[in-house]
Write a structure and sequence with these properties.
With 159 residues, the protein is mainly α. 74% of the residues lie in helices and 0% in strands. The radius of gyration is 19 Å and the shape is flat.
Length: 159
């Protein structure tokens, strides 16, 4: 039961629950790259005269989005941020290969933006929402049943 109280944050001091700059930096490094590439793709697609390079525009866009969410109170754990990083890359690769082989033989800038935006939205939904938690739990149970493993005991901490 001690682990359950740790998960709810009852025994942790307020200083341990306060997000740090290092935590923000880790989230920025794990969540930011998908937003940086989206910002760069948008800067390439609109071809506006900006005082920044496309990479600079992407970094600025990604930083603004991550810091805005952080300031608004959305401060994901490093574990959730890493899960988003892996999920977004995987979804993007599947979508990119599927779109190129089935629908569009060449990637135009707007197709790139659409695929990146869909992969970001799907990954964020799968990692950061209760709907995503239900999907992950269903997938975990399904894989365990396919591998003929016993059901996972709910009282065991997965951390």
């Amino acid at each position: 039961m001690e682990r359950a109280s740790d998960r709810t944050g009852e025994t942790r001091s307020p200083a341990e629950r306060t997000p740090s700059f290092g935590h923000l930096l880790l989230v920025w490094l794990l969540v930011g790259p998908s937003l940086w590439s989206l910002g760069s793709a948008v800067a390439d697609a609109i071809q506006a005269e900006l005082p920044l390079s496309t990479m600079g525009a992407g970094l600025l866009f990604g930083t603004i989005v991550v810091v805005s969410f952080w300031t608004a109170g959305f401060q994901p754990s490093p574990r959730a941020s890493f899960g988003y990083f892996v999920a977004e890359l995987s979804i993007y690769l599947v979508l990119a290969v599927g779109v190129v082989t089935v629908f569009v033989p060449t990637f135009t800038p707007w197709v790139t933006i659409a695929v990146q935006l869909v992969s970001i939205c799907l990954a964020a939904t799968l990692v950061f929402t209760p709907v995503g938690a239900n999907i992950r739990n269903w997938f975990r149970r399904h894989v365990r049943s396919l591998l003929k493993l016993p059901p996972q005991d709910r009282s065991v901490d997965r951390d």
